[in-house]
Amino acid sequence: MSDGTAHAVNKKRRRFLIGSTSLVGVAGAAGAAVPFVGSWNPSARALAAGAPTTIDISRLSPGELLGPMPAWRGKPVYVFSRDEATLERLQTELDRLSDPDSENTDQQPEYCQNEHRSRKPEVMIMIGLCTHLGCAPLMNPEVQPQDYDSEWIGGFFCPCHGSMFDLAGRVYKGVPAPDNLLVPPHYYESDDVVVIGLDGENS
Ligand code: FES
Q: Mean of the pLDDT values across residues 120-142?
């Protein structure tokens, strides 16, 4: 083997070794990363999955969805206020709901697993996508019989296949949607500013 050939072979071998070492390095790094995932706090996980959104709720009018519609991770965020009478009505038809106590813990953070599914009883925040096939449910706060429900006490109706939710986003029994509407992680930065996508420090 001439000097030139030997040099070429050595160079190839060196490249191969560098490549192999890099692969081991990546595998090692991936292996080392796994234990850390479990130790992330929820805020770090949320931050990694999508930037938070800040919403000014100072213009929130009673009984109406906040507009223009805010979005988080490309999903519509429904923000609306509820008065005392609405909050009381939320407790009147529990036997008609599939999951009145929000036992499916995937559908809201722990701090919203309460009778109104929110941090502040008067302000409801949820993702406006039906848990059936993802249509946008329509808000109908009227307390009067509807074509789709003769005992309607206000809520959301999904026109795609007829799912119904109350004004806490809890799904009615016997409709196609399987779960309550999703409440995203959020916290109040001040009375009028809410941050969607993070749990906040005192969660
Ligand atoms: S997408 Fe809402 S009922 Fe089917």
A: 97
Closest Cα to atom 1 of ligand 1: 133
Amino acid 42: pLDDT: 47
Query: Considering only CA atoms, which residue is closest to atom 4 of ligand 1?
Result: 161
Rounded to the nearest 5°, which phi and psi values hold at 11? -65, -45
Q: Which amino acid is at 152?
A: W
Chain-centroid distance, C-alpha 47: 13
Residue whose CB lies within 8 A of the most ligand 1 atoms, among 98, 127, 131, 132, for a mutation test: 132
This prediction's pTM: 0.76
Regarding the beta carbon of 177 and ligand 1, being less than 6 Å apart is answered: yes
The answer for residues whose C-beta is within 8 angstroms of residue 8's C-beta and 6 or more apart is: none
Mean pLDDT over 50-71 rounds to 92
For residue 47, the model assigns a pLDDT of 52
Determine the distance separating the centroid of ligand 1 and the alpha carbon of 157, expressed in angstroms: 9
**How does residue 23 score in pLDDT terms, banded at 50, 70 and 90?**
very low
CA 154 to each of CA 62, 93, 97, 117, 141: distance values in angstroms, whole numbers, following the listed order: 13, 11, 14, 16, 4
Q: Give the Cβ contact number of residue 104 at 10 Å.
A: 15
